[in-house]
Amino acid sequence: MLSAVLVIFYAKKCERDEIDAIKFHFATATLVLLFVLCGHGISQEIREDFREYFEEFNVSGTFVLFNRNEKRYTYYNRSRAYQKVSPASTFKIANTLIGLDMGVIPNERYVFKWDGRKRNINKWNQDLVLRDAFQFSCVPCYQDVARRIGKKKMKIWLRKIAYGNNDISGGIDRFWLGSSLKISAKEQVKFLRRLYYHKFLFSKEHHELVKKIMLVETTPQYKLYAKTGWAISDGKNIGWYVGFVEKNGNVYFFATNIETQKANEDFAKARIEITKNILKKINVL
């Protein structure tokens, strides 16, 4: 009887030792894998402390940043960063690239002629050169560009550049304005990285021209390139501020997306202020 108990005890001990050995080797392998991923891949960090900047303006949203030199993504509200919503006027970045490639926009001196119709944004009620049309976010100017590109070519190009869900079914001059086209904040950052490094099937000259008209702020410390966006989709106000910062030999690509049911007078500036507050907190600005 005693010998039988000893045999059972010894068998269980061996089983435990085997399990412990497996656990040890698995843990070691996991650590090695993590070391490899951290050493050679892209890391990430979650910053829930950025919440205060969104709450200041009574909006929900997300923030994504990619630090080129450190190969690191920084997120606020990471799950939201993967949610596709209307790109609104941030689509003007892609629209300009395609328009340039097809000759619809011949060069940076191109003038969008005012059609004489009075609109509620006074800056649109005049002839505009490319940079001003882009920075003033002239919707009718870029609706004309999209119509001249046409459905067939637009669909082909959006598929080539992998822009969000590539869906233009909402109409050739409306699909990006709270309609069928959707893109996530993470995808916005990936798109900007590819733009910066001339990864699309456009000429280097056209990549550089789009970057040039995105420049909004220059200081001795940094250069800020960006584009705003605002659309109403499914009864919600969707706001964007996307772009990149060049500073001290590094590039920081970012996308801020905000949302609220009812926009107040601060909604337009909230997109920019939230982004700048975060960038200042992490010493990018």
Please characterize this protein's 3D structure.
There is one protein chain. The chain is α+β, with helices and mostly antiparallel strands and 285 residues long. The strands form 2 sheets. It has a 7-stranded mixed beta sheet, with helices on both faces. The chain is globular and about 45 Å long. The protein has 2 domains: 1-41; 45-281, Beta-lactamase (3-Layer(aba) Sandwich), CATH 3.40.710.10. It is 44% helix and 21% strand. Helix 4 crosses helix 6 (139-149) and helix 4 runs antiparallel to helix 9.
Q: Count of helical segments?
A: 10
- The CATH top-level class label of the largest domain: Alpha Beta
CATH topology of the largest domain: Beta-lactamase
Q: Roughly how many Å is the radius of gyration?
A: 25 Å
How would you classify the helix and strand content by structural class? alpha+beta
Summary?
This protein is of the alpha+beta class and 285 residues long. Helices cover 44% and strands 21% of the residues.
Feature tags:
21% strand; 7-stranded mixed beta sheet; disordered N terminus; 285 residues; two-stranded antiparallel sheet; 10 helices; Beta-lactamase; 44% helix; alpha+beta; 2 domains
Topology readout:
Layout: H1 2-40, E1 43-46, H2 51-55, E2 60-67, E3 72-76, H3 78-81, H4 92-102, E4 111-112, E5 128-129, H5 130-135, H6 139-149, H7 151-160, H8 185-196, H9 204-214, E6 215-218, E7 222-233, E8 236-247, E9 250-260, H10 267-281
Parallel strand pairs: 1-3
Antiparallel strand pairs: 2-3, 2-9, 4-5, 6-7, 7-8, 8-9
